[in-house]
Design brief:
- By secondary structure, the chain is an alpha/beta fold.
- Helix content is 49%, strand content 16%.
- The protein has 15 helices and 10 strands.
- The termini are far apart.
Length: 388
């Protein structure tokens, strides 16, 4: 491994230990495997402090070496508010011939076979239920793997209802017929699903050609419910590309979680002719319903939409903003303030003054406080008297 990659890996490892402070190990007795299997568990730093909060779960095959770089990337993204906190489960596969046994596939059928079939059942019938019973998990589940394990995770797509909501596949050594079966399955999906695929330009031809066919076929299937991304990393090897691919995959899957940035604003919001408040509401509904992540609307996002509404003179949408404010911050003055602002902009200072008065009796939030409300009330009284 080049020296610079060692330094990057060390940095990610250090970050993972600092933020995933509850990194523990467990041994699961498996009837399917006829043995115990060791796993690594990474609980978010906030896990104990938030007893009612539920977290998405990331299951890592090849957890022996994927756990630390994944936890580092998640820690970094979470620190900046770009990625949610996630429970990480790393499955150990480096003992004896576990990795080879776990990924045993019948070459003629292209399906898990013998010990591979046992491992397939272990993940779906034992590990996932065990984790969901023991920890506070949301319904959103991600699975990731590298080369043979990256291929293996796709078998969960073959089920009538895929077990996982998101798949991260790094340089998969695709099983027989997989480049055709995966797109066929994705084309028929009726629920949202995330699929990330990557390769290195240093991958050998045997790996890269089937991946290219898979990428082409997924694009032809073109199911709008499938959030798909393919990365080919230049100047990387089969192993080094993983450190590039991990953040790319995570930011693809959790794109909607990120605070509104300039790209989202310019490409998705500012181009709308109407429905700015609806966009904001839908952004957080998707976080909750699709990703299983529930957070109040960020005040920074709220202010971005409010500013755009004022710029576009779409004052009637401030009523919807008031509803969003009341749902997310019921004790704060945000909702009443938005109604006051709406009536003020629509030329009704009397009703605006009443709403500002109501707001002054509620809790401050962001840059909204009692002094501002009293100032707005005085302004509305002046408008009532002068009509200006």
């Amino acid at each position: 491994m080049p020296q610079i990659m060692k330094k990057v890996y060390l940095l990610l490892t250090l970050i993972s230990f600092s933020v995933f402070s509850q990194k523990t190990f467990d041994n699961i007795k498996s009837a399917k495997l006829g043995a115990e299997r060791r796993i690594t568990i990474g609980l978010p730093e906030s896990y104990e402090a938030n007893p009612d909060k539920k977290y998405p779960v990331l299951y890592l095959l090849d957890g022996d070496y994927l756990f630390d770089p994944f936890s580092g990337a998640l820690s970094y993204g979470s620190y900046w508010g770009d990625l949610p906190e996630v429970i990480i489960i790393g499955v150990h596969q480096n003992k004896n011939d576990e990795r080879e046994d776990d990924t045993t596939v019948d070459q003629s059928t292209g399906l898990p076979f013998e010990k591979g079939a046992d491992f397939f059942e272990f993940i779906g019938a034992e590990l996932v239920p065990y984790i969901e019973k023991k920890y506070r998990t949301s319904p959103f589940k991600i699975i990731a793997g590298h080369d043979v394990t990256a291929s293996f995770i796709n078998f969960y797509l073959y089920k009538e209802k895929p077990l996982f909501n998101a798949y991260i596949s790094f340089s998969p050594e695709l099983a027989n017929k997989m480049e055709v079966r995966i797109p066929e399955k994705l084309a028929k999906l009726t629920e949202p699903l995330f699929y990330y695929l990557s390769a290195a330009d240093g991958d050998n031809k045997k790996i890269k050609e089937p991946i290219e066919k898979l990428d082409s076929n997924i694009k032809i299937a073109n199911n709008p419910l499938v959030n798909y991304k393919y990365d080919l990393f230049k100047g990387t090897t089969h192993y080094t590309q993983v450190l590039h691919a991990i953040p790319s995959a995570l930011y693809q899957i959790f794109e909607v979680y990120r605070p509104i940035n300039s790209a989202e604003y310019n490409n998705k919001i500012a181009i709308l002719e109407t429905g700015y408040a609806d966009y904001l509401e839908n952004k957080y509904n998707v976080m909750s319903k699709v990703l299983g992540v529930q957070i109040p609307v960020r005040m920074s996002d709220f202010k971005v939409i409010e500013t755009l509404i004022l710029k576009k003179n779409a004052y009637d949408e401030l009523g919807k903003m008031a509803e969003i404010g009341n749902v997310n911050y019921p004790k704060a003055m945000l909702g009443e303030y938005e109604l006051g602002l709406m009536y003020e902009k629509m030329g009704d200072p009397k009703r605006a003054s009443k709403k500002y008065q109501n707001a002054s009796q509620m809790e401050p939030i962001g840059d909204l406080n009692k002094d501002l409300m009293y100032e707005k009330i005085d302004q509305m009284k002046t408008l009532e008297k002068t009509g200006k």
